[in-house]
What does this fold into?
Amino acid sequence: MGDATVANVTIRDAEAAHFDRLAADWWNPKGSSAMLHRLNPVRLGFLRDAIDLHWGGDIRDARPLAGRSALDVGCGAGLLAEPLARLGAAVTGVDAAPGNIAAAKAHAAGGGLAIDYRHGELSAVPGIFDLVTCMEVIEHVGDKPAFVAELARHLAPGGLMVLSTPNRTPASRLLLVGAAELVGAVPRGTHRWDDFLTPDELRDLLAAAGLVMDPPRGIAFSPAKGFHLSDDLALDFITTIRHV
It folds into this structure.
């Protein structure tokens, strides 16, 4: 898993090149990003609940982000940015892999969606945003404190951030790196287990940037349920974040 790459200052060049090679296949639900396609509904469900709770919205509203801005960091080819646009947000997506941005622009145009996609560094994106999303990205970042500081800088006062990332546990090493690559669920070389963060490590990074992390939810997998929200944080977790 990994929604992509972010900034040349904080992302390793090899990571950007890895995801660039996968760009053309991004929207194929049975292709190299198949795991992200299966994971995305779980993330979107969590995100919709977080949006309604944060801004006191009506759960029946089809466009709860109308009038709000959203930044999807490490947007890949737009798998999350497009649903955010359909929820009413004015969306900006940033990614360090040029192929991802080309694929994202083409797919959005085909769907009639106006999304401001940018290739390059997060630090070069102007403005602040009501909602910042960063899904399966921070584990690919080299300078994590610098990256988190940029996330904080782009989050508007009173805004909401939603971040997901694999946990650094024996289970994630076995399943998300070893088994997932062995069976082809994710392309080889996608993950470096040593770069995964525990929830406590992420909380400390965020606190140093003036952000507070809410209790995380796990994203677990079972043959019966597929990916689903859980109290089990062993594989992957997702959380909401705000300014202190």
